[in-house]
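Quick illustration, no need to memorize.
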Amino acid sequence: MRILVVSHTYIVDLNCEKLRALVALSPEIEVTVVVPRRWRPGGVQNRIVEPQPLQEGSFRLVPVSNFSQNNQGLLCFGLELVSLLRQFQPQVIQVEQGSKALAYAQMITLNKLLGLGAKNVFFTWWNLPYELKFPVSLLERYTLQQTDGALAGNQDGAEILQQRGYSGPIQVLPQLGVDPHLFQPQPQPELAGSLEIEAADFVIGFVGRFVAEKGLLTLLQAVTQLGDRPWKLLLLGRGPLKQTLLEKVEQAGISDRIIWVESVPHDAVPHYINLMQVLVLPSETTEGFKTLTAAGWKEQFGHVLIEAMACRVPVIGSDSGEIPHVIGRAGLVFPEGNVAALAECLQKLIDQPQLQADLAEQGHARAMSQYTNHALAQQQLAFYQSLGVRLGDG
């Protein structure tokens, strides 16, 4: 089975682990990944990423000349893509830029013009309703009509595609999995000591951006309702909300209970997660998304949840977006923005050590069975097979 994947996401080598796991499932699977030759992450003015070609057995990464270096929707590729397609003869072409992307329309058109007969598949994270104007509306209509299968990173995204008129096969599957070798239970006594965390402390953790939509103000209000219980709050991240958070902490008189840690390299994150007795993701949906440029947001997945679950750390999340689907019954979910409900969840875990232990095990089992790169690769292969692509064909 020959699979061509197209996305700027894979300029980061760590993000390729699911695709490497896909190749490892069978010697009959080959994966070629097309990435832009030059990319400016987040539109940062002076930062250009130029990935290098890579060949690892049946896994290959190929940088191709590109138009647009910082806009996912406008990204498309140069003429050398034609010779690559002729040489590789993919049976699946998967573009992970969404249904409205020029790159997806480009791949669909080349697939047809070159007579490849590959299945057209795209991935999207988009999880709120939107409206499109001409000519983008025409572009999306074209791509959806030519799509053989769609991967949505969340349940809301799948429903949005159906609302947009897509009636073909859809699989809800996150783009990236968790590495169980990196994210695993591992005591951190030296790190705990350096942060003045004592054995009796119940460490409540948050990992992510310090922005209003992540629900940090709700989290701060909730911990002030925990009374004299021996808690500490570990906040790992950075962002524009930090000054406001500092002021709220000072006003509440809980400065001695807050541990601030600036963002750290990804491979250091599990060290801090392993200091926690619970990780909280209290995201809050904001209004908007009537058009593609309108302000608004809803949690698309919450990757830190599966990282904590893999470390056997219980999780609490709001009911924003995909969070309840990620947690399932393996953690606690509260109505977003509800301070009292979040405080009650925290109190339960502090006061009931057995509940904490049970949720830790349930979360770990869920992460291992559904959210490792290997597990996602198996689900992705099954999806391709459901589209009629078989191992050994071609």
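The chain has a mean pLDDT of 95.
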